[in-house]
């Protein structure tokens, strides 16, 4: 049965047209108690199960199993740490199992490009550090950057260090960018504007109605340039921003430009990058006869750990204050922080400066050799989240093998856990409960190189700005691998000149 114990009771009662008060009277409880049993907030007395099953015509054996299962789940999930662990493991399982049997006809990775030697004419707005430029590079496709631009001078510095572009082809401010000169000269236009609300005067807004927003300038450039294809990317929240009104305007305006519009929320963990990053993508195609569906998810074959550097500078390690923030159960339960995760939390521009996001714990072993630079970053894990650790007095008692004629096993760090008991939060018993030990170690934030890797940029990406700017630029970028999937699915070469 997929329903909870309480839900089964409620549905059976309703099917028999029994009121809550009538059912409560039969099993000998008050209406409030029965209501709580049905919604799962109160346990059911097993002694009353026979009369319950007889009254509602339920299978006694099946209901006994449901009741036991319900109680086990409630006991386990009283512990926030267990809830967090289960959520994490379910996400990992889903990540590894999603579409393991991808139909070869639907696998975008196997698609052959029709004109692999052609040159793609590219224009970008809000260009950032060039995610689509890197995507085309990784696909080994010839391309020419017709124009690009960004208001951030640090972004321009990174862009010019990594891509070939004439100074005349760069614009600093999209609101003053005159794009009419590029009409018919662009095959692919890519960009994404910040999410802004529109003034909803009428039922349907057109391009002129959204003037004054950065989306207006994106749509204006599409209208002026008339690219064969455009890709518009934005945060997932755009779809429900201002009660969904903003998203409706975006769709209406882009459709009015004469393009066939396709939209979908894509997660980078479904396209080869272990990062939980959901974004809305809009693909507009000038030729309405061309069919397009978004690329199917593929199995994730790597974890975040595969993207880490072998050696890191001491400046990336946290000191005591940062460690206590990052390791606190409150922040981990709210998914503000994650340590040694398989799938990265969504990168944000400022995460490395407010101790949010992903962190790496490195335990020290007897073989670890450190320079003096690292001494101040070594911490004792036992001093973090003290409530989960045993005091010296309790530890000595719990790990004693017994007294007189009583002896028991006191092993810690078991491969297979002993059964978890409801009393484990308040009683410590040798040989009954589970205990783990920790060594000293260090916690560090991800390096800029690692953040760039987890956005799909290779180590050949030239870093010419400060770490502060690199973190911001990585966090603001589009994931390269998602763009690769879209470009392959589109067969972008068939739109080339």
Automatic annotation (TrEMBL):
It catalyses: a 2'-deoxycytidine in DNA + S-adenosyl-L-methionine = a 5-methyl-2'-deoxycytidine in DNA + S-adenosyl-L-homocysteine + H(+). One of its GO terms (molecular function) is DNA (cytosine-5-)-methyltransferase activity. Coiled coil: none annotated. It is an enzyme of class 2 (transferase). It comes from the Bacteria. Belongs to the class I-like SAM-binding methyltransferase superfamily. C5-methyltransferase family. This is Cytosine-specific methyltransferase. The lineage of its organism: Bacteria, Pseudomonadati, Bacteroidota, Sphingobacteriia, Sphingobacteriales. The gene is dcm.
């Amino acid at each position: 049965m997929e329903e909870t114990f309480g839900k089964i009771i409620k549905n059976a009662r309703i099917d028999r047209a029994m009121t809550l008060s009538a059912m409560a009277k039969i099993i000998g409880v008050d209406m409030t108690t029965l209501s709580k049993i049905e919604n799962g907030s109160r346990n059911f007395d097993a002694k009353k199960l026979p009369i319950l099953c007889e009254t509602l015509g339920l299978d006694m054996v099946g209901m006994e199993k449901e009741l036991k299962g319900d109680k086990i789940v409630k006991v386990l999930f009283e512990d926030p740490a267990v809830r967090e662990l289960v959520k994490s493991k379910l996400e990992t399982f889903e990540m590894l199992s999603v579409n393991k049997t991808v139909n070869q006809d639907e696998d975008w990775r196997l698609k052959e490009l029709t004109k692999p030697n052609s040159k793609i004419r590219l224009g970008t707005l809000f260009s950032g550090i060039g995610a689509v430029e890197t995507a085309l590079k990784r696909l080994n496709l010839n391309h020419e950057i017709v124009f690009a631009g960004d208001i951030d001078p640090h972004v321009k510095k990174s862009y010019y260090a990594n891509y070939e572009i004439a100074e005349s082809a760069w614009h600093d401010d999209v609101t003053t960018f005159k794009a009419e000169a590029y009409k018919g000269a662009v095959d692919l236009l890519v960009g994404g504007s910040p999410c802004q609300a529109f003034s909803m005067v009428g039922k349907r807004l057109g391009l002129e109605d959204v003037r004054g927003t950065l989306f207006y300038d994106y749509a204006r450039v599409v209208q002026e340039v008339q690219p064969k294809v455009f890709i518009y990317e934005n945060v997932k929240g755009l779809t429900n921003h201002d009660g969904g009104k903003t998203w409706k305007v975006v769709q209406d305006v882009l459709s009015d430009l004469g393009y066939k519009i396709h939209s979908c929320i894509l997660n980078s963990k479904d396209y080869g990058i272990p990062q939980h990053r959901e974004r809305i993508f809009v693909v507009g195609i000038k030729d309405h006869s061309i069919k397009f569906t978004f690329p199917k998810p593929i199995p994730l074959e790597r974890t975040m750990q595969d993207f880490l550097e072998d050696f890191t500078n001491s400046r990336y390690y946290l000191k005591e204050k940062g460690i206590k923030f990052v390791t606190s159960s409150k922040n981990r339960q709210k998914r503000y922080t994650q340590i040694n995760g398989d799938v990265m939390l969504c990168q944000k521009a400022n995460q490395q400066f407010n101790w949010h996001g992903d962190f790496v714990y490195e335990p020290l072993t007897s073989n670890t050799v450190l320079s003096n630079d690292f001494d101040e970053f070594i911490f004792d894990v036992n001093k973090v989240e003290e409530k989960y650790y045993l005091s010296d007095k309790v530890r000595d008692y719990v790990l004693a093998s017994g007294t007189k004629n009583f002896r028991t096993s006191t092993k810690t760090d078991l491969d297979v856990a002993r059964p978890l008991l409801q009393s484990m939060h308040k009683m410590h018993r040798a040989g009954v409960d589970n205990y783990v030990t920790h060594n000293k170690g260090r916690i560090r934030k991800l390096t800029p190189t690692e953040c760039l890797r987890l956005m799909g940029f290779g180590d050949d990406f030239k870093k010419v700005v400060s770490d502060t700017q690199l973190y911001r630029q990585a966090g603001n970028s589009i994931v390269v691998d998602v763009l690769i999937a879209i470009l392959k699915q589109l067969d972008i070469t068939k739109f080339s000149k």
